[in-house]
Amino acid sequence: MNSRGDKSPLFLFQYFDMISADKIRQIADVKLAEGSNYLVDVIVKPGNKINVLLDNDAGISIVDCIALSRYIESNLDRDIEDFELNVMSPGLTEPFKIARQYQKNIGKQVDLVTKDGKKMTGKLLSIKADQVELETRTKERGEKNKGKKLVVSIIKINLDQIKETKLVLSF
Asked: 15 with 81: CB under 8 angstroms?
């Protein structure tokens, strides 16, 4: 009986805790320790919708994604925690999330936005001790009636000052 004294059915809902991103990272790290793949990010959304971003300096394959997905799934219990799991590459249009992505893309053109809103495009030269080195090329007005000249600059930016970096796609 319920609090009103009638015999209407009671509905019991089982509450499932959200799986933590740290738990998924720990599981993935065990599997990834045996190879050259690395974890870029783990995102857990409400309803335990888990997205795992996986990469490799030489590129990631669907076989790599499937292997990690199966490993993670085998280390979770659906009877305790229901979930949806997607393991994928971060994609070419996604911003860099970790320093190793900068390392992977040395020598390539990137668009970079600093936290203070400054935008620049240039060739990624290096990443050393939490600092990115970027070669930019701009045209600046020269002396009167001499037109514009190309100015090449090397800019060093601390990773903690970068809001977003994306690979420039050229076809």
From this structure: no
Phi, then psi, of 68 in degrees rounded to 5: -70, -40
- Residue 74 within a domain: yes
Instruction: Count the domains in the chain.
Output: 2
Domain-terminating residue out of 53, 88, 123: 88
Locus of tokens 């190309």: 150
Together in a domain, 84 and 29: yes
Q: For the whole model, what pTM was predicted?
A: 0.78
CA 146 centroid distance within chain: 45
Same domain for 54 and 112? no
Residue 16 lies in a domain: no
Query: Which contiguous run of DSSP H or E holds residue 73?
Result: helix 62-74
Structural domain contains residue 4: no
Per-residue confidence in pLDDT tens, the chain, 171 aa: 444 455 444 444 444 568 999 999 999 999 999 899 999 999 999 999 999 999 999 989 999 999 999 999 999 998 888 999 999 999 888 999 999 999 999 999 999 999 999 999 999 999 998 899 999 998 887 777 677 888 899 999 999 999 999 999 988
Q: Which domain does 128 fall in, by range?
A: 99-167
* Among 143, 124, 146, CA closest to 134: 124
